Amino acid sequence: MTLHLYFARRFGVMFLAVGGSVTLFVALLDLIEQVRAADSGVTFRQVVGLTLLNLPSGLYEFLPLIVILAAIALFLGLARSSELVVTRAAGRSGLAALIGPVLVAALIGALAVAVLNPLVAATSTRYAELRESYEGGGSVLSIGREGLWLRQGDAGGQTVIRATRTNPEATVLYDVSFVEYAPSGGPERRIDARRAELRDGAWDLSEVKVWPLGPGINPEARAERAERLSLSSSLTQERIRDSFGKPSAVAVWRLPDFIGQLEEAGFSARRHAVWLQMELARPLFLVSLVIVAAGFTMRHPRAGRAGPYVLAAVLLGFGLHYIRNFAQILGETGQITPWVAGWTPPVAALLLAMGLILHREEG
User: What is the pTM of this model?
Assistant: First the structure.
């Protein structure tokens, strides 16, 4: 037990050291990018705030790299200090040195999914809202039990849109209401339609009823009906989909309910279902990266060629990461099921890593 705790503590310290260095690097890069992309009216304090809000999302993407670099540094240090030699001389297999780091990697993955994932969802959503407010206009989409809510805006004012359901491409809304607001903030007009289709730069409405709104106006008395009506819009299909299309913007604990709400509203929830399975499999993927690093670096320093083996471990880690992303694409396009897309790459990576380490230690 003492041996396992020692190796686990060493890996934890190395993970924090590598994580701190990567955090500083990512923060500086993102700060430079935010300064370059900021409008002239955005202050440096606001840019720093955007950078801090975007930092958790960047770190979450770099988490596999942090884990494999920490594992490589750990096992290289143990090899150079001959601690692995002492462990084997004491009658313990080299695999015993893996138990502590593997458990720590699994704990890091579990905490990342349970704690960091909701934090990333909250900060990325707030980041998008702030950046949109600094740039002006924009659109926000919300999906709930009562239907779909969408906001579009430009210099001429804001429009709040509510629909009971939509098509999977988010270009056709059914039983839809538009409430137009003036730049000063007051409502100007309400429009109800049976169907609204998004075309190039406009909503094409059918079976329409329009109520003028404002102080001293009887809306029903001045209401008008029309078979067709066109409303200008700055929205596109891509902008609507991007408003809710990033699964990482939804906390993992809310994903099952959110998937159900998407399907009720008529959207395809395949992207979110794939992301949910990938998040649940994340601890297993991090464990496989630790074992991959061990398979290449648990060697005596006198054997030489440490550099090529370290490079091979990093390249294999990147390869596994891209295979995982490729499986995600296959799952999102419907080529494979979400469960297969989420769990097959981590399981395959774990089996590959175990085969590698067993070949070196027991072969």
Answer: 0.74
